[in-house]
UniProtKB/TrEMBL annotation:
HAMAP family: RadA_bact (MF_01498). Residues 78-228 form the RecA family profile domain. SUPFAM superfamilies: P-loop containing nucleoside triphosphate hydrolases, Ribosomal protein S5 domain 2-like. The keyword Transferase does not apply. Keywords: ATP-binding, DNA damage, DNA repair, DNA-binding, Hydrolase, Metal-binding, Nucleotide-binding, Stress response, Zinc, Zinc-finger. Plays a role in repairing double-strand DNA breaks, probably involving stabilizing or processing branched DNA or blocked replication forks. DNA-dependent ATPase involved in processing of recombination intermediates, plays a role in repairing DNA breaks. Stimulates the branch migration of RecA-mediated strand transfer reactions, allowing the 3' invading strand to extend heteroduplex DNA faster. Binds ssDNA in the presence of ADP but not other nucleotides, has ATPase activity that is stimulated by ssDNA and various branched DNA structures, but inhibited by SSB. Does not have RecA's homology-searching function. The keyword Isomerase does not apply. It comes from Jatrophihabitans lederbergiae. This is DNA repair protein RadA.
Length: 467
């Protein structure tokens, strides 16, 4: 029996080259195909990625382009952020867009990502003296132009291109030479040098790496739009978030006008800021003072309402909690309905209310919700929720100029919360004259406001019942 030639043996070895499979959701790799990803537990997301990488080998030594420098040496080449002209976006970014920085903006379909970025592109072209380029892989240029006319974001230095090929995108960069690139979205762009379907793990990784390299080399501020999965996370491998400098989430309920922009990663600023916007038919507007959306405007106080102050990022926001208590008529247990609040904490507050304040609601239906569509899960709203429910149960209207801040424990104590001074200052600025806070809170005098420290739930209810 003759042995196969060297060429034939190499071909047979290439045919037997093992392949790997990667999860389209989290990027986890496996040597064999499985129906369910062992890492993120998603079904049907394992796709063939190609031959496994060879064993790691040490590369040959090369001369570095730049010598290592002391960290204490001043760097004159540090890029400064350029304001976008949208104050709420600059607040989240830490000052504006940095040349060469790559941002990833994620959000649910229809939340307003493209509308926001269209205004960002128009402001950039208007203020920075360099063109802005929007590359859309999901819409035609006529669709984007129609939206720009409707939202009044037209500008001569704002360029549009509808492309799905990475090579064509790079050609547009050579031709337009923009200072800002907006790629909507990264999952719709494919590279001809990489195998795999559009939006798959290899394609997303290759496209993002190529765009990032070009952006760093030419100093182009780049915004990549990313899709989200059913659970709200960014679609594609987790490596996508590590390749970029800033990761932003654009959130909001399509049934309300409020939109919130948050940063979960920011190499140029803090990640505890939040930007507020309002969507309408003619586009999107920033909300410098959004508290008015979360508080009802009424002249006469009504039972079942209480105002509190939450801290979103570093921004204090006034929020109103509403409650309705009614006798249930159907058989079985009483109903508990909670909207935009933590249902488990509301049930806990009902138990505390009955045990420590003498307000028994076991045989009555209880409804609780926040105003304006904002989700409130911060423990500092416990006292306001409890007082709103007690107010509805006893048919006692709390003063419209009263706000309540504090976390309620199972023992009926009111625990201290952070940023009390900042919360009270915001409430005082908007006309509130009385405030209930936990005993021992760190605060100083605020002109025109009476601050009452209450140690327990019973003391707080006794105080408001006498007003």
């Amino acid at each position: 029996m003759t042995k196969p030639s060297g060429t034939s043996a190499a071909k047979q070895q290439a045919k037997r080259a093992p392949t790997s499979y990667a999860c389209a959701e989290c990027g986890m790799t496996s040597i064999r195909w499985v129906g369910r990803c062992p890492e993120c537990q998603a079904w049907g997301t394992m796709a063939e990625e190609g031959a496994r990488a060879p064993a790691l080998a040490m590369p040959a030594l090369v001369t570095p382009r730049n010598a290592a420098q002391s960290i204490s040496r001043p760097d004159v080449a540090v890029a400064k952020a350029r304001p976008t002209g949208i104050a709420e976006l600059d607040r989240v970014l830490g000052g504006g867009l940095v040349p060469g920085a790559v941002l990833l903006l994620a959000g649910e379909p229809g939340v307003g990502k493209s509308t926001l970025l269209l205004e960002v592109g128009q402001k950039f072209a208007q203020q920075n003296g360099s063109p802005a380029l929007i590359v859309t892989g999901e819409e035609s240029t006529s669709q984007v132009r129609a939206r720009a006319e409707r939202t009044h974001t037209m500008h001569a230095e704002l360029f549009l291109a509808a492309e799905n090929d990475l090579g064509a995108v790079l050609s547009h960069l050579d031709e337009v030479k923009p200072g800002l690139l907006i790629l909507d979205s990264v999952q719709t762009i494919a590279s001809s040098t990489v195998d795999g379907v559009v939006g798959g793990v290899p394609q997303i990784r290759a496209v993002t790496a190529a765009i990032t390299a070009v952006a760093k080399e030419r100093g182009i501020a780049t915004v990549l739009v990313g899709h989200v999965t059913k659970d709200g996370s960014i679609a594609g491998p987790r490596a996508l978030e590590h390749l970029v400098d800033v990761v932003l989430y654009f959130e909001g309920d399509r049934h309300t006008s409020l939109r919130m922009l948050r940063a979960i990663k920011n190499r140029y600023g803090a990640t505890d800021e939040v930007g507020c916007f309002e969507m309408h038919e003619e586009g999107i507007d920033e909300l410098v003072d959004p508290s008015g959306l979360f508080v009802s405007n009424r002249d006469i106080a009504v039972p079942g309402t209480c105002v509190t102050v939450t801290v979103t990022g570093r921004r204090p926001l006034l929020s109103e909690v509403q409650s309705l208590v009614a006798a249930y008529s159907s058989a079985g247990s009483a109903r508990r309905s909670v909207t935009d609040l933590d249902a488990s904490r509301v049930n806990m507050l009902l138990a505390v209310l009955g045990r420590h304040a003498g307000v028994q609601l076991g045989d009555r239906d209880v409804y609780a919700a926040s105003v304006g569509g904002i989700k409130i899960t911060e423990p500092s709203v416990d006292l306001a929720v409890l007082l709103a429910i007690a107010s509805a149960a006893k048919d006692i209207a709390l003063p419209s100029t009263l706000c309540a801040i504090g976390e309620v424990s199972l023992t009926g104590d009111i625990r201290r919360v952070s940023s009390v001074q900042r919360r009270l200052s915001e409430a005082g600025r908007l006309g509130f004259r009385k405030a209930l806070v936990p005993q021992g809170s760190d605060w100083s005098h605020i002109a025109g406001m009476k601050v009452i420290e209450v140690p327990t739930v019973s003391k707080a209810w006794d105080f408001v019942a006498q007003l």
